[in-house]
Amino acid sequence: MSKKKMVKNVLTKLPHRWRYIGLVLTGSIILYTTCLFLPMEPLDINPTAVLTEGTSRLYGLHNFVSRLPKIQQDIITEETTEERDVREQRRESIKQSFLYGWNGYKTYALGADELKPLSNRSSNPFGGLGATLVDSIGTMLIMELDIDELLPLIENIKVKPDEQMSVFETTIRYVGGLLSAFELSNHPKKHILLDKAEEIGLALLPAFETAFGLPHYHFNLLR
Ligand SMILES: *[C@@H]1O[C@H](CO)[C@@H](O)[C@H](O)[C@H]1NC(C)=O
């Protein structure tokens, strides 16, 4: 039997249902790949807001021209009393919002990763080392809030030996949070922050021992 005949034989012997499924499947794949290569609609951005040379770090890189408007506030050099009042009022209300969230966490979930704001319970999606606590220290320092009572809590954080931890989350939240708080703080006991960052960083090290140096997604000290 020739190859062509064999293929024909197989096709005619296939149940109808399978032929339809095959047809739909092939059609979807063709449609999907076509969509992938369709040109995208250009972004509708006000051209007067276009960044000009010198205001974007990416401008000119491989002929890249950013079409995003600048969102950063210019550094204030002069302001009227009125403008200063508005700015300070805004500053204060941001601080009050932060404190509202922080006090909820402190009351109902201190030491846990997160507060669940509707049930007032807590959850631990980041290994249970107190993610909100660590994340917040830098913010608190910038807001000139006292971190005195937090340092003993930080000192007490214990890396759990049999916990699946995300390498990414551990790096940005715990190691990054502690290091930036250490940099921002003038507290006489701020070494606690650096010591804990080192401890967690060392625990994380085995995750980087891979053939290509790209870390594992998760790490677990016992496995
Ligand atoms: C959670 O705490 C807030 C503030 O103390 C309170 O108003 C709210 O009723 C509490 N919610 C539950 C479900 O207990």
Automatic annotation (TrEMBL):
Chain ranges passing through the membrane: 20-40
Source superkingdom: Eukaryota
Listed cofactors: Ca(2+)
Keyword Lyase recorded: no
InterPro entries linked: 6hp_glycosidase-like_sf (IPR012341), Glyco_hydro_47 (IPR001382), Glycosyl_Hydrolase_47 (IPR050749), Seven-hairpin_glycosidases (IPR036026)
EC class name: hydrolase
Pathway annotation from the record: Protein modification; protein glycosylation
Keyword Mitochondrion in annotation: no
Entry EC number(s): 3.2.1.-
Catalytic activity: N(4)-(alpha-D-Man-(1->2)-alpha-D-Man-(1->2)-alpha-D-Man-(1->3)-[alpha-D-Man-(1->2)-alpha-D-Man-(1->3)-[alpha-D-Man-(1->2)-alpha-D-Man-(1->6)]-alpha-D-Man-(1->6)]-beta-D-Man-(1->4)-beta-D-GlcNAc-(1->4)-beta-D-GlcNAc)-L-asparaginyl-[protein] (N-glucan mannose isomer 9A1,2,3B1,2,3) + 4 H2O = N(4)-(alpha-D-Man-(1->3)-[alpha-D-Man-(1->3)-[alpha-D-Man-(1->6)]-alpha-D-Man-(1->6)]-beta-D-Man-(1->4)-beta-D-GlcNAc-(1->4)-beta-D-GlcNAc)-L-asparaginyl-[protein] (N-glucan mannose isomer 5A1,2) + 4 beta-D-mannose; N(4)-(alpha-D-Man-(1->2)-alpha-D-Man-(1->2)-alpha-D-Man-(1->3)-[alpha-D-Man-(1->3)-[alpha-D-Man-(1->2)-alpha-D-Man-(1->6)]-alpha-D-Man-(1->6)]-beta-D-Man-(1->4)-beta-D-GlcNAc-(1->4)-beta-D-GlcNAc)-L-asparaginyl-[protein] (N-glucan mannose isomer 8A1,2,3B1,3) + 3 H2O = N(4)-(alpha-D-Man-(1->3)-[alpha-D-Man-(1->3)-[alpha-D-Man-(1->6)]-alpha-D-Man-(1->6)]-beta-D-Man-(1->4)-beta-D-GlcNAc-(1->4)-beta-D-GlcNAc)-L-asparaginyl-[protein] (N-glucan mannose isomer 5A1,2) + 3 beta-D-mannose
The entry's keywords: Calcium, Disulfide bond, Glycosidase, Hydrolase, Membrane, Metal-binding, Transmembrane, Transmembrane helix
Membership in a protein family: Belongs to the glycosyl hydrolase 47 family.
Name of the molecule in the record: alpha-1,2-Mannosidase
Species, as recorded: Helicostylum pulchrum
